[in-house]
Amino acid sequence: MGSGTFKGGVHPYDGKELSKYKQVREILPKGDVIYSLSQHIGAPSKPVVGQGDYVKCGQVIAEADGFVSATVHASVSGKVSAIERRLNATGIKVLSIVIENDGQFTSFDFHETADVNTLSKEEIGKKIQEAGIIGLGGAGFPTHVKLTPKDPDKIKYVIANCAECEPYVTVDYRRMIENAEQLIAGMKIVLQLFDNAKGVFAIEDNKPDCIEKMQELLKNEDRIEVQILHTKYPQGAERQQIFAVTGLAIHSKQLPADVGCIVDNAETFFAIYNAVKLGRPLIERLVTVTGGGIADPSNFLIRIGTNFSELLEAAGGFIGQPEKLLFGGPMMGFAGTCTDVPTMKTTSMLLSLLTDEMSALTPTPCINCGRCVEVCPSGLVPSRLAKQAQRKQNADFEKWNGLECIECACCTYGCPAKQPLVSDIKLMKKRILTKKRQQAAREKKEGEAK
What pLDDT score was predicted for residue 7? Predict the structure, then answer.
């Protein structure tokens, strides 16, 4: 096993005390519910309902359009009022299905599996795929794809990412406190797919109550254990967590499966349990609404597609006028200007800050102190990469391994000159990767023409 840590990283104020001890409250949507068809990595989902159709909770409203895609299910009952482009929390308009919520929440019949141990690997995989499960702690990679590596026998570790290193968010903490048994059941289901793997719950040491609870529940389990991680951001990043747990290193051109690892978020393991054991598709998840600008910071069980404004109302609304609104955490979240947008499968938090400290800072010239190098968990030289990005030096940027950046923002956080390093690097990465995709598409088209 690894040492529980990695080189680099930072220790920002975590703000978790605002909501970590607040028990989960379920809230049901009152108004229309909007389902983005681009909630995951891969091809957008394809609508299978039309305007005027009546749907029930749990009904498929959009199917996966390819292997790397995910099914979308209705989380309320009512009529489909529109299929059109709507604004989402990332600030772009995407094709969406709008359901006029009838408030009845009439549901499909979900069929529970009496004994999941009797299911074949194929049956488990099918249930996970049909449930529309994606990674619920990050970019939203379809889970059925992640759980079908080229050689399942080479998988040695199935890691439940319970680090929750992003400041303020407390959904994984509440899952471990309130639903530990279901998380373990979800892990056991995944281990049925990998005969040679060990299950690991990776938890930062700032959650001693979670560690104690999970260790007690796992004391008689041979294939599952708890790995205690040092509290440090970005401990929850996939590459860093694999190294901290196993001592194995990977780069951007590798998948975790290439070094024998599968990593999924705690909330994802809970969704797997719901799908395989209870027969329930992914229609709900936990979301934290918190920050100094929130009257009653809380953790909610919400129906996917619920408007953020309803979550804000349930948390008592704003205190005054917040200067910063984020969908996600302060390190990697998306800045927003309003809450009139729908939640998605990847939604973990709405964060309201009374003061925008970053905007108040004035960047000064780089002093070549090396602080950004010291904190970079990928071993890069962010100051040099940012300069290359500003000068559009694509070849030099790639030569200096700029595509290995995980966009964690440790460099920006640690920079004494307050340079927006990660913003420049992210823009450059996007520019290069877009150019590569366009080139690949042209070459494919030319090849087909021949």
Answer: 95
